[in-house]
Design a protein that fits this description.
By secondary structure, the chain is mainly α. It has one domain: ABC transporter involved in vitamin B12 uptake, BtuC (Orthogonal Bundle), CATH 1.10.3470.10. Helix content is 76%, strand content 0%. The chain has helices spanning 2-21, 28-60, 72-87, 92-95, 97-119, 127-149, 154-163, 176-190, 197-200, 204-209, 214-236, 242-254, 259-284, 291-312. Helix 8 runs antiparallel to helix 11. Belongs to the binding-protein-dependent transport system permease family. FecCD subfamily. One of its GO terms (cellular component) is plasma membrane.
Length: 313
């Protein structure tokens, strides 16, 4: 297992080194600081998406689900569209990335907190009921966003459209310090619960029989997932299939139930996919397409493969 982690680490470090040094032309003082900020943002985003999806799939016992099913991506777009619809695209909440980040993240975490508080009010509430409610609310947010988008000025719709897709070529690097501080705080909080993931992967009944305080632990994991997804979405925009792709590839490659290896492996695969994909987009395809389009295309095809595979099983 350590050999696999080592191999993934070597590939990830090699790709990062190539990204940092390729075509620098000797202008290290100019090139390195800018590329370093971009690569840090990509690594942070990749690790966040991999962690949140792996935890989400474990607590739901379903490998074709991602946290986006509870409607956080749709809520992000609803918040962005609502602000432009009411205040216009030149309002300071949109012009200032830090203010926009706090509003978006705060809104998504507040929504997740209210959803969990309401649905877990009674003991023994099924987590699939929460997913169903999240799916319905996500559809509601998406419909409201579309309604406002057809009413706003076409020029302002272009601003909304710019935020509808994840952009790894225009990462909000000025949010790096805030994001890193939040993620480090969450990881310190999350560390005490990581030991439960291996048992939770056995299912709800088995976990309860083995003495896990199921509802208590699940609530904490869901809050952690909501915060991580909020940070990733606010940093680069909504991206649907990356988590699905890297979490399932980690399961297939690592072939273990131990989450200390699965979490690390999925994070490294995510970094390899993003940095390698970005190199291809920039150096091979000459920006003729975007990384999010490639990730969503490959992820979509892989999603169909997983559905067909599960159907045959």
């Amino acid at each position: 297992m350590k050999a696999k982690i080592g191999a993934l680490s070597i590939v990830a470090i090699a790709l990062i080194a190539i990204f940092m040094m390729i075509d620098a032309g000797g202008n290290w003082d100019y090139v390195l600081p800018r590329r370093a900020k971009k690569i840090l943002a990509i690594i942070l985003t990749g690790c966040i998406i991999a962690f949140s999806t792996m935890i989400f799939q474990t607590i739901t016992n379903n490998r074709i689900l991602t946290p986006s099913i509870i409607g956080l991506d749709s809520l992000y777009m609803f918040i962005q569209t609502f602000v432009i619809f009411v205040f216009g695209s030149t309002h300071f909440t949109l012009m200032n990335n830090n203010v926009n980040f706090l509003i978006s993240t705060g809104g998504m975490v507040l929504f997740a907190g209210l959803l969990y508080k309401f649905l877990f009010k009674r003991e023994g509430q099924n987590i699939y009921f929460l997913l169903l409610i999240g799916l319905i609310l996500g559809t509601l947010f998406s419909s409201l966003s579309t309604f406002m988008q057809v009413l706003i000025d076409p020029n302002e719709f272009l601003v909304v459209q710019d935020r509808m897709f994840a952009s790894f070529n225009n990462v909000k690097t000025d949010l790096l310090i805030t994001s890193f501080a939040l993620v480090i705080g969450i990881m310190i909080y999350f560390w005490r619960y990581i030991k439960y993931l291996d048992v939770l992967s056995l299912g709800r009944d088995q976990a309860i029989n083995l003495g896990i305080p199921y509802d208590f632990v699940i609530k904490r994991f869901l809050v952690v997932i909501a915060i991580l997804v909020s940070i990733a979405t606010a940093l680069v925009g909504p991206i649907t299939f990356l988590g699905l792709l890297v979490a399932n590839l980690a399961h297939q490659f690592m072939k273990t139930y131990q989450h200390k290896y699965l979490l690390l492996g999925s994070a490294l695969i995510s970094v390899i996919a993003l940095v390698g994909g970005l190199l291809i987009v920039e150096r091979v395809l000459a920006f003729s397409t975007t990384l999010s389009v490639i990730v969503n295309f490959i992820g979509g095809v892989y999603f169909i493969y997983l559905l067909l595979k599960e159907n045959k099983a």
